[in-house]
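User: Structure tokens for this complex, please. No commentary.
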Amino acid sequence: MFDWMTWGIFGIGFGILVVWIAVPIREFQGMLKKRREKERQP
Amino acid sequence: MATVDIVLVAGFLFTMFLAGVYFSRWIKEADDFMVAGRQLTPFILAATITATNVNMYSFIGQAGGAYKSGLGIIWHTWVGNMALVFSGIFVIPIMRRLMIRTVPEFLEMRYNRHIRLFIGLIWALKLCFWLAVILMAATRAAQGITGFQDVWVWFIAFAVIAIIYSTIGGAWAVSMTDTIQFAVMMAGALVVLPIAMHAVGWMPKLLATLRANGMSEHLKFITQGQEFNWLFIISMILLSTKWACIDQAILQRAFGARDPRTVAKGMVLSGIITTPFAFLWILPALANTVLLPGIDKADLVMPMFFAQFLGVGVLGLVMCGLLASQMSTISADINSVATLFTNDIYHNLFRKASPKHLLRVVRLSTLAAGLLMILFAYYVVSRFQTVVEANLTVVGIIDMPVFVIAIVYGLFSKRTNWQGAVGGYIIGASAGAFCYKYFSGNPDLSAYAIVHTLFGADVIWAQWAKSLAALASTAAALIGVPLVSAFFPKQKMTKDCERVFGAYKSALHSTSEEEIHMMPTSAKGKLGVGLMIVGFLSFLFGVLSGSVQFQFASQMAVGGMLVFFVGGLTRVYSD
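Assistant:
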């Protein structure tokens, strides 16, 4: 019998992990872009 | 540990060191070091708050509690998550508007600099001791998991790398390494869950076995007489609200947000994602009641499980996850100690110090805090077995009155003066200490019928002494503050005091996109707050009805919590 409870919790956790790798990378790239623009300004 | 595991751990530690060195280039001034230049974005903020919040106390200590007494311990995390959502929407954005770095700084604005100095000193010392406690607890767990007994190997792994990158990179290094460490923690915990469940025959077999072994109470979220029962949850509501509103490590991360709306988003997201995360350490602990029965010292359960059931490579990944959980908390707390010392003690006494000088001081005090942590851990904490519990008890008693004077009366009552704050603090802490001593002695209250009704037969009061002490210190401070204030003149409205109440007023009705105002104007915002209220009332009803063993207590509480989270998420993504 398939253990829906365990794999359901695993699935939610895995989904959170994927989102929290992808979105912070994007946010960090945005931060880096802003810093470089600020450094270029006189 | 096999060579593969050692390589994984060494590789992880080296990556964290490199990340810390990289972010040291982003430190130009004290605000960069203490609050990451106030530029953190929502998802990075959520990750750093979660990483700071979750440490080996969750994976080892709380798991041990679940092994001994069942699911009820999960509320330690869940109520904390609800408190994060509440505080993120209604409290911290007010403080973020004031552009402060610490809670004692807020206390000076509201009352006077002596209270700032007093609380700053207590908290700096308290955090140093807490750091030593968690370092020693983590070291003992790692010794049990891997068999490496050399204490200094674990001090270097858990503490030295974190001290180095915190000293050179400050809050930038702490926040960004926390984001990586959150992902590593999550990956390690995800790997453990199916391994534990497979070993025990998966969830249906685990539930059937526990019921057959007479451990049905282990499976209830709300119990009447277990150690983590309805009374424990009520005390956690207070302690967690206090923690989410004034804990320096959490708040310092929040103060690093780019604007008040980001604070709200980050804290709400952190509260929500940590909720399913908690199952990843609680469920394997329940599985171990079947896999490793009869272990007296509950803190040994998960280390024994990791040592016996995790294969080569997997153990290395899980060790990285445990290291990540501990390093994120240690680095955040060291950064907090250094900020408290520099901001509230040093700068309080030497007001003419230049920003460059303060940056040097905060760096040196980061290093000093790290060294103190190691010395305390090796020479003091290592001699005592029960320090974690003792530390949590003391914190519950001395911190609850600070919450009352800072948030309850500090933000919402102009009548409260500094004399009331000091008097109320002393009354609250004393009442908490007295209550703890009384109930630790396991008094015989069986003559009172209400005790049987609410707690069942054979009550062991000592197991709830901490919870009752927190309730007593809160209640006494709530009464003591206005009582003492009444004997002295009203607080003079200084410019800083006006700013505090001004921040509160503008939080009520601001219209800027970067702000989040407490009174929603859109239908979506009002729906969000409505759901939060309904959800919290349902949760509270579920918890209180657990005292009389109401059949649907657990469902009401868990369902209410979920509705509360939906409401919070709706609120922060509206006006």
